[in-house]
Amino acid sequence: MGSIRQPPDSPAGTPAPDAVRHVCICVDGSPVSSWTLPHGLAIAHAFDASLTVLRVLELPHAQGTQASSYPLEWEARRSDARHDLGRICKEHQSPNLPIETVLLEGRVTKEIRQWVSRDGADLVVLCSHGAGGWTKDGLASTAGRLVRDLTVPTLLIPASILDELPKKKVAYERILVPLDASPQAEQALPLAVRLAREHGSEMILIHVVPVPELIKPEPLNDEERELERRLIERNTRVAERYLGRLSDQLSHEGVRVRTVLTHDGVRFELMRSIEREHPDLIVLSGHGRSGRTPLRLGGVASFLVEHATTPTLIVRPHSSPSD
User: Fold this and answer.
1) pLDDT higher at 3 or 269
2) Hey, what domains does the chain have and what are their CATH numbers?
3) pTM, entire model
């Protein structure tokens, strides 16, 4: 645990764990979705990556009609979408960061997944809500499906923060990284470290010591309470050493680091820590210690993307040899 674990060797030609070469920002023509652009630009600049702004027009037949039934209306939608993408490109283009725009037609989630896989985007930026409007009840259906289905790092921007100045240059001054001491969770560190260096950020490493899972069909007796207490003390000592080693290593590499150790329910404590620390960005692995699951996101990652009010970068962990 004394060093940052790296993913297992990747096939030749795949990027390093801290490399992002092509950023894709997904928009749908709504003001809400376009406010993801400052974050996508910040990521692309930090990694010196190419940038594509992608929009998919939902085909009318996916909504129960045929495009041929309304050819003039459909062509007008295409024209408006092209104009909107051109406006975005003109507003944000810079000599150091050329922007490509892509307009596709079809089912939104399917087209985005296929384009990301085919064209080699290795980080996707999207908003929690789009043209359908913002609600307080989790993610919109399209964002939810993409967060679950994409296999590349995904930066989700909550619509709840859009009362902030959308065109303000993004600076990640505080980056919070939840860790559970597992190799899977540590796979979020390379990207977080790279961003922290580029933005001069403070990295906040947080570990929640959970209450031990003891079967409690009835109140614990004295012996069982003592066992629970000793387990919590043991896990706290191990977590302190773990965070200390990581902090020393990252500090030695020139990163400003602070550690937070807390107790109780993992999800509740992470939400409290986010409210208390006010990070500008959360970076975490899609899976932690729970490891093997057919789902692309574990329980903690799913909870955070549903409820967090902070931009959250989900890193997709590679399988380790022991998985």
Assistant:
1) 269
2) 19-170 (3.40.50.620), 173-281+293-305 (3.40.50.620)
3) 0.87
